[in-house]
Amino acid sequence: MKSLFTAEIRNKLSASRAVATVTIENVEDAKPLSEALLEGGIRSIEITLRTPAAINSMELVAQSFPEMLVMAGTVISAKQVKQVKDAGALCAVAPGMNRKVIEAALENGLPFAPGIATPSEIESALEYDCDILKFFPAETSGGLSFLKNMQTPYSHLGLQFIPLGGLNVSNASEYLKESYILAVGGSWIATAEAIRAGDWNGIKQRAATAAAL
Predict the structure, then answer these.
(1) Which listed residue (46, 59, 85, 204) is catalytic?
(2) Could you read off the pLDDT of 189-210 as tens digits, one per residue?
(3) Would residue 46 show up in a list of annotated catalytic residues for this protein?
(4) Is 204 a catalytic residue?
(5) How many angstroms separate the CA atoms of 198 and 25, rounded?
(6) Domains in the chain with CATH codes
(7) Is the pTM here over 0.90, yes or no?
C-alpha cells in the first residue's frame, strides 16, 4: 500500500503522540498559543477551519515555528485543500470520508487522513490508499473497544488511527498503548475558551501533561 504520508511526517506525529486540536478566532493569538504548546512539549498542531482567522493563523504558525508540524483540520471541501497547502499545512484531516476532498488532496500532493467511524468508511478510504485515518467522534462512536474490534480485520494492512472526540487526559493514555494509534487529537489541551482568554500558562501546563502521556 502506497502511503500519502511521508516517513518524516509520520515520524513527527508518532513522536509527538498528542496533537493539539485548536480553533483560533484571532490571528494575534496564533503566536502565543504556539509558544505555549512548544514550551509544554507539544510539537503538532491541528488548526481547524472553523473560523475566518484559520488560514492566516495557519500561515503564521507555519512561517514562525518550523519545528511545529502544522496540520489542517475540518477540511471538508476540495477548495480548502489547496488553501491549506498554500498556507503551509504539511497534512490535513477531516471529520468525514469525502471522496472529492481525498481526490483533491491527491491532486495537490497533500497527505490527508479522512474521518472514519465504520468499516465501510475504512474500506472507502482504502480505495485511495489512505493508511492513516481519523477516528471521529471517538468516544461517542464506541471508544477504544469499538476501534479495537473494527480495525482487527484490517490489521494486516498496517493502518494507523488518530482518534479525536471525547478524549482527555484521563483516557488518552489507554489509546496510546495500542500500536495502531499513531497519535491522539486533544482539543482539551487548548480549548477555544482558554485561547480566547489568553490562558497561555494553563495551555502550557496541559500541553506538558499531554506530552508526558
Answers:
(1) 46
(2) 999 999 999 999 999 999 999 9
(3) yes
(4) no
(5) 12
(6) 7-211 (3.20.20.70)
(7) yes
